[in-house]
């Protein structure tokens, strides 16, 4: 029998103690608007994960690489989108194309390297060959197909949609999705100049398999007030807290959001004794300014004066996610600027950065706790005039998630046909 | 037996042994979470660097580069971070040491075993130390202590040197 005398504060709240146990188990729906809490099973349930792959990752425009990684004819890059292997390649005509990285003969990968430069592709298994434009250019021992009149022209690589915006290369697996510019919309504007108005280079790339759900990483990148967890941010970002802030959340259609200011919410590097890291401010940015946009479903672009960080994700299972991190800066021959770009980026966001390790620990331990099933609902209920401590951007994200999934994030099994664990 | 040659060879061996001692001590103090002891292995103008080759971007990458002053600040703040609760043990194999007067180049292979709080051990990182040292008042110290990583995917990121 539950001894309520051990928990007098629960007795006091429960008007007689009749639902004290349910408070402890955390299965009661919060007494909040429907948009202000989410069902934690969206982070752990296998059937929801599978539906996300179909309804979100297979239909959205997804950032996959930066155009400088495939700048020259013959440059190729492979990646994974919605669990599908994708090959991007720049043709001799300068056009960037995308294909499924699957040989039309028996399905082996056409490319086994993650990146490179080539004049064409040859499947390693049975040696079918393809041009940079995807045409099948050769079949080993073609006479074997003469009786059935197999024509290699009928078997090009299977194409996928590719488009570029502000140097960012996106892939979309659906023909029905709107164009990239319409999908992204105006959220690109605050970062267009720093991403487009000077030549950039990708100087950093690393990835890790993070033991968390992919949305928890996007939450971490969106929700601003966990900044208080970061030792460095507590010293250098005083505008995160307070009743009003120069830094504001900005909510856009289709689940995109960001936070930036008119330039007055700068990072106080001096307070952290890191004042020199901000030389070489990118076009359109004020000195020491910070701008962040989060693109639905899985991208963050974080720009701090002279460096850009871009995150993308490859969800593997409900509790395992590959996160890719890129660092970009202006192409320059100025050795001092290169050194400061590196120092600035690495200080926060490298594998030995001050912040990144803290973030991954947070989302991994959060997911492990959520996966225990103890607490059914998470709260995203802060309303603070779009200050950085507001949850409005996270709510907008889950509104879009619910729209695409066909059931809201606070009742993800509400459609009986989709019910798996209710 | 030429005594002079013998003495010279012995001196070289002793100096190489002294460099090895620095390499082993560096790993040991890290394993003991002794950041002051680690920092003391550096010359005043010493630099610590972590590098990797980005196969995906076809480029060498610098993941950490700090001089001694910066290291002192960063390491003094390690305890303030939310950080890995596992512990690490270095296995270091010196491969070659080349002496040139007061200076030395050393190449070592390393692997780091990480043990989680519940006792699960696994290889955390592997790579090579590509070190440059100087002899200051009879003590070998790093002018460059560089961890060139083979490992590019970490299970847990790091607030302390590798």
Question: Which characteristics define this entry?
Answer:
heterodimer, A: 422 residues, alpha+beta, Rieske Iron-sulfur Protein, Naphthalene 1,2-dioxygenase Alpha Subunit, Chain A, domain 1, seven-stranded antiparallel β-sheet, 19 strands, 23% helix, B: 162 residues, six-stranded mixed β-sheet
Give the topology:
The complex is a heterodimer of chains A (422) and B (162).
Chain A lengths: L7 H6 L6 H6 L11 E3 L6 H12 L4 E5 L8 E7 L2 E7 L5 E5 L14 E3 L3 E2 L6 E2 L5 E3 L20 E7 L2 E5 L7 H5 L4 H8 L3 E11 L3 H9 L8 H6 L11 E4 L5 E4 L29 E6 L3 E6 L2 E11 L2 E11 L4 H15 L6 H16 L5 E3 L12 H14 L17
Antiparallel strand pairs in A: 1-19, 2-11, 3-4, 3-6, 4-5, 5-10, 7-8, 8-9, 10-11, 12-18, 13-14, 14-15, 15-16, 16-17, 17-18
Chain B lengths: L2 H29 L3 H5 L2 E13 L4 E9 H9 L10 E14 L2 E13 L5 E16 L2 E11 L13
Parallel strand pairs in B: 1-6
Antiparallel strand pairs in B: 1-2, 3-4, 4-5, 5-6
Describe this structure in words.
The complex is a heterodimer of chains A (422) and B (162). With 422 residues, chain A is an alpha+beta fold. Chain A contains 10 helices and 19 strands. In chain A, strands 2-11-10-5-4-3-6 form a 7-stranded antiparallel sheet, with no helix packed on it. In chain A, strands 12-18-17-16-15-14-13 form a 7-stranded antiparallel sheet, sandwiched between helices. In chain A, a hairpin with a 2-residue loop joins strand 10 (159-165) and strand 11 (168-172). Chain A is globular. The two termini of chain A are 27 Å apart. The mean pLDDT of chain A is 92. With 162 residues, chain B is of the alpha+beta class. Chain B has a single domain, classed as Roll (Nuclear Transport Factor 2, Chain: A). Chain B has helices at 3-31, 35-39, 68-76; strands at residues 42-54, 59-67, 87-100, 103-115, 121-136, 139-149. In chain B, 30% of the residues are buried.
């Amino acid at each position: 029998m539950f001894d309520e005398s051990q928990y007098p504060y629960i007795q006091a709240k429960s008007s007689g103690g009749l639902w004290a146990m349910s408070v402890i188990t955390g299965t009661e729906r919060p007494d909040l608007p429907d948009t202000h809490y989410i069902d934690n099973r969206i982070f752990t349930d296998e059937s929801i994960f599978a539906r996300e792959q179909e309804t979100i990752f297979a239909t959205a425009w997804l950032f996959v690489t930066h155009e400088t990684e495939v700048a020259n004819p013959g440059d190729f890059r492979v990646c994974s989108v919605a669990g599908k292997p994708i090959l991007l390649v720049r043709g001799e005509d300068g056009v960037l194309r995308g294909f499924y990285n699957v040989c039309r003969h028996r399905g082996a990968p056409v490319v086994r390297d993650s990146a490179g430069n080539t004049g064409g592709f040859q499947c390693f298994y049975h040696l079918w060959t393809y041009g940079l434009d995807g045409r099948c250019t050769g079949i080993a021992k073609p006479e074997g197909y003469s009786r059935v009149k197999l024509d290699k022209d009928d078997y090009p690589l299977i194409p996928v949609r590719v488009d570029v915006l502000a140097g960012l290369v996106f892939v979309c697996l659906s023909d029905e999705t709107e164009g990239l510019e319409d999908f992204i919309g105006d959220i690109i504007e605050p970062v267009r100049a720093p991403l487009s108005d000077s030549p950039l280079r990708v100087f950093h790339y690393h990835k890790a398999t993070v033991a968390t759900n992919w949305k928890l990483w996007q939450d971490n990148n969106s929700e601003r007030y966990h900044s208080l967890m970061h030792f460095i941010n507590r010293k250098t970002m005083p505008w995160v807290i307070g009743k009003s802030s120069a830094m504001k959340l900005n909510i856009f259609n289709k689940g995109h959001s960001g936070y930036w200011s008119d330039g007055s919410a700068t990072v106080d590097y001096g307070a952290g004794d890191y004042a020199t890291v901000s030389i070489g401010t990118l076009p359109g940015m004020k000195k020491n300014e910070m701008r962040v946009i989060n693109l639905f479903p899985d991208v963050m672009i974080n720009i701090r004066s002279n460096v850009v960080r871009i995150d993308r994700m490859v969800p593997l299972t409900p509790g395992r996610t590959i996160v890719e991190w890129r660092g970009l800066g202006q192409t320059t021959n100025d050795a001092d600027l290169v050194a400061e770009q590196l120092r600035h980026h690495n200080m926060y966001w490298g594998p030995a950065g001050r912040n990144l390790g803290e973030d991954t620990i947070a989302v991994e331990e959060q997911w492990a706790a959520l996966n225990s099933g103890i607490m059914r609902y998470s709260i995203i209920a802060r309303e603070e005039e779009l200050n950085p401590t507001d949850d409005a951007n996270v709510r907008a994200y889950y509104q879009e998630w619910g729209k695409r999934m066909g059931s809201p994030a606070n009742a993800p099994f509400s459609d009986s046909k989709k019910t798996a664990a209710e | 037996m030429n005594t002079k040659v013998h003495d010279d060879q012995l001196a070289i061996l002793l100096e190489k042994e002294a460099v090895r001692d620095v390499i082993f001590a560096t790993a040991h103090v890290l394993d003991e979470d002794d950041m002051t002891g680690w920092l003391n292995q550096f010359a005043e103008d010493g630099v610590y660097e972590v590098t990797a080759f980005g196969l995906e971007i076809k480029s060498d990458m610098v993941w950490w580069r700090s001089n001694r002053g910066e290291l002192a600040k960063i390491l003094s703040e390690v305890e303030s971070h939310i950080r890995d609760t596992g512990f690490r043990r270095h296995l270091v194999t010196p491969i070659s040491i080349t002496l040139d007067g007061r200076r030395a180049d050393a190449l070592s292979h390393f692997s780091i075993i990480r043990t989680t709080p519940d006792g699960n051990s696994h290889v955390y990182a592997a790579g090579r130390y590509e070190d440059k040292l100087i002899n200051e008042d009879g003590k070998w110290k790093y002018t460059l202590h560089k961890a060139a990583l083979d490992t590019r995917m970490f299970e847990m990121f790091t607030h302390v040197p590798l």
